[in-house]
Every structure is written in C-alpha cells, then in structure tokens.
Write a structure and sequence with these properties.
It is built from 9 helices and 11 strands. With 340 residues, it is of the alpha/beta class. The strands form 3 sheets. A 7-stranded mixed beta sheet has the order 3-11-8-4-7-5-6, sandwiched between helices. A two-stranded parallel ribbon has the order 1-2. Strand 5, helix 4 and strand 6 form a beta-alpha-beta unit.
Length: 340
C-alpha cells in the first residue's frame, strides 16, 4: 500500500477527481452539481429544481405493506440503475435510507451523542464546518455527519473532506464516495461550497486523530490556513465545531512506528485492548459524546484578493482554532464523566 498522506489542503497541486463511471446497465446516472455561485455583485442565475427520489415510507406511515413496497422499489432502482449520483459519486438516496440507518444506532444508543448549536449551520447556501479530530479511527466525522443530517432544521447534508488513505482502501473507498465524501483538496472543497453544500473538514488530519492519549483535547497545528483560503474564495461562513467524547474511544498509549511504515499507515495504534484482544480490541469504548457547533465566522465581507493575504489567513485560522479549543475546555468542565 502506498504511504498515506495527511490532508493536503495546503498543497497547491491539482488532484484528479475520481469520478463515477459512465452510465451503463444497472449504473446510476451522473447528476452535475448546480452552477457555481457568481462573485459578489454579479447577477444570479436560476437553477432548475431537481426531482427527488421516491422515498421509502417511514414506520407508522401506512403499515408494513407500504414499507415493504417502498423497500422493493428501492431495490428495483438499485438493480436497474434508476437513481442518480452527483459528479463526486454522492448517492443521496442510499445515504439517507441505508447508510444513515446503519450509523444511527451507533450515534443514538452507543455513543448517545448530544448535539448543540446545529442551528448555527445556515439553512441554505454553502458553509465550511471546521472540527477537531481525534479517536484513532475517524468515527468523529461520521457522527458529525449524522448530527447534521438528523438534527438540522432544514435537513441539510454534510459533505466530508477525507485524506487520501480513505480512497486507497477497497470497499471503504466506494462507501465514502456514496456517502458524499471527497478528497481533502482545495479544488473539490471550493467546488462543493460554491454549489451551496455544507462541507466538513478536520484540519489536524492524522496529527489529531493519531495523537497520544496523554495529549487528548489539545488541538494540533491547523496547517497554513488552507481551509480559510478556500472559505474566502467561496465567500461562505466558517462554522467551528467541537467534539468531546471521541478521544476516549480508543485510548492510544503507544505507536508502533516501524510496523506503521511497513503497512504504509500514518501510525499503528497500541491501546489497552488492541492488538492484544484481536478483533475484539477494535470495539470502541462506549463513551458519551457532545458535538457543539459554534457561532459562524462570516467571510463574504472580504474582497476576493483576501484569500491571498497570509496575515489574514493566519488570524482567521487562529480565531477558529481558539474558538474550538475554548469550547472543548468548556464542554469538558461541564460533562459528568467519560461514559455518562
């Protein structure tokens, strides 16, 4: 396996997007994203509304017959290719009806996530959600995606930016694309933001998710401000997000660096249960989580050339980082225990 790379937001190289294949028998139609938003002051263009997929009836809305019929209709569309994905491979119907249903029990019953401030995410238009990253495995991103999907008043979807390693893994690669994730590069992020999507990024990258347990809830470096530059170019607000609870699911006590290099991984964690208990050691601890979305930081008042101002990017990056860190400390003081 090739060596994994950290989130390349500050890498100016253009990355080729892995697009879904052309439509054939049993394959989905590819739907283009809406046209990019025009610069400030330019006349707006109207985008034709999209046709929503036929929903699967929910429990209590017509009995098991309707649910069965809806499930069969869903399977028929899957087999015949009568559904759509966007140009990044995002399958909204599959995400809403299958992937979210699989993640929801983990979110609600296992981690018992409490969400605060989700109304700070705009009800329409693009926004960049910036969060801390932790937990050895990136479950925090998935739980944040469920939080936005299930609790936002406008029912918005979060599109996560992921490291290269995610798209090198079989099965995981396809599931990530279907769930709306894409490479963490400025080109893809700006394209999504200008199309009015909510985009999530964790600038700490592997430095955050793979840090020792002794450094829990201490934010790592946020890079050189690449995410701020992207938000400025797209003219969208930055929404800081603080996640408490993920640090303790896999307490990382050590890192087998030699083994990590052999396997092409950014780190190889040693926890109280892994690898000593084998597959059982991969089970995360059932900690109690809190996800808080902070007050948005607007960027639309800055001129386009502000994205090239290193001092402004440094100041805004520091402002976002400090807001996330302050909220983390506040949430830690408020929580009763790690598990309750």
């Amino acid at each position: 396996m090739a060596d994994a790379k950290v989130i390349p937001f500050d890498d100016d190289r253009s990355r080729a997007r892995r697009r879904p294949p052309a439509r054939g028998g049993g394959e989905a139609a590819v739907r283009a994203l809406p046209a990019q938003q025009p610069p400030a002051g330019a006349p707006e263009t109207q985008v034709a509304p999209e046709t929503a997929p036929e929903p699967v009836p929910a429990a209590g809305q017509g009995g098991w017959e309707r649910r069965l019929a809806g499930g069969l209709a869903f399977l028929r569309r899957r087999v015949t290719g009568d559904y759509e994905v966007d140009e990044f491979g995002y399958d909204e119907e599959l995400t809403d009806q299958v992937l979210m249903s699989l993640l929801r029990p983990v979110y609600e019953k296992y981690f018992r996530v409490e969400v605060k401030g989700v109304e700070n995410i705009p009800k329409d238009g693009g926004a960049l959600v910036v969060a801390n990253h932790s937990g050895t495995l990136p479950l925090d991103g998935l739980m944040m995606q469920v939080a936005v999907h299930d609790h936002h008043p406008a029912g918005r979807h979060l599109r996560l930016l992921a490291a290269d390693l995610v798209f090198m893994l079989p099965v995981v690669n396809e599931l990530a694309r279907k769930a709306g994730h894409t490479l963490a590069c400025a080109e893809d992020a700006e394209r999504l933001l200008r199309a009015g999507e909510i985009v999530g990024v964790m600038p700490e990258g592997f430095k955050g998710i793979g840090k020792p347990f002794a450094e829990r809830y201490k934010l790592q470096r946020f890079g050189r401000g690449g995410f701020v530059s992207t938000a400025l170019r797209a003219g969208v607000p930055i929404v800081p997000c603080s996640i408490v609870g993920a640090e303790e699911i896999y307490p990382m006590l050590g890192n087998a660096k030699t083994l990590a290099r052999v396997l092409g991984l950014p780190y190889f964690p040693l926890t109280p249960t892994f690898p000593w208990l084998g597959p059982l050691g991969a089970l995360p601890l059932p900690t109690k989580w809190t996800i808080q979305f902070g007050e948005p930081i607007p960027t639309d008042s800055y001129p386009q050339e502000a994205a090239e101002d290193p001092m402004l990017m440094f100041n805004l990056t520091d402002q976002v980082r400090e807001q996330i860190q302050h909220t983390l400390y506040k949430l830690l003081v408020q929580r009763r225990s790690v598990f309750f």
